[in-house]
Structure to design on (110 residues):
């Protein structure tokens, strides 16, 4: 998913959310599942995943604001064992908003 589309979706979710929700990837087969932050890489914008509490929507928007101005068409992705996993979808109907990245090629869940 392109950064601008992801950012716009977060703005929409923030305006509709009653509480400032955490962004998580609850995909089966990946050990880390909360977005801890974002980093600009040669492959786009990497969502740093970890097991600690993740960013809530307002903090994710704040962290992405400068990136959006500079590279709105950058692809948002995560990395698992050096494999780039693009962001596919953001689900809007969970108590915690779920972000879904591609599964690794060697995942048994693929």
């Amino acid at each position: 998913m392109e950064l601008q589309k992801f950012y716009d979706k977060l703005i929409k979710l923030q305006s509709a959310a009653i509480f400032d929700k955490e962004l998580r990837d609850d995909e089966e087969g990946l050990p880390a599942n909360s977005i801890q932050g974002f980093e600009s890489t040669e492959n786009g914008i990497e969502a740093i995943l970890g097991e600690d509490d993740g960013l809530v929507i307002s903090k994710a928007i704040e962290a992405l604001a400068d990136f959006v101005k500079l590279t709105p068409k950058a692809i948002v992705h995560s990395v698992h064992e050096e494999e780039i996993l693009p962001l596919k979808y953001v689900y809007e109907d969970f108590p915690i908003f779920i972000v879904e990245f591609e599964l690794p090629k060697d995942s048994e869940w693929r």
In short: The chain has a mean pLDDT of 84. The beta strands are 23-24, 34-41, 44-50, 76-80, 83-91, 97-101.
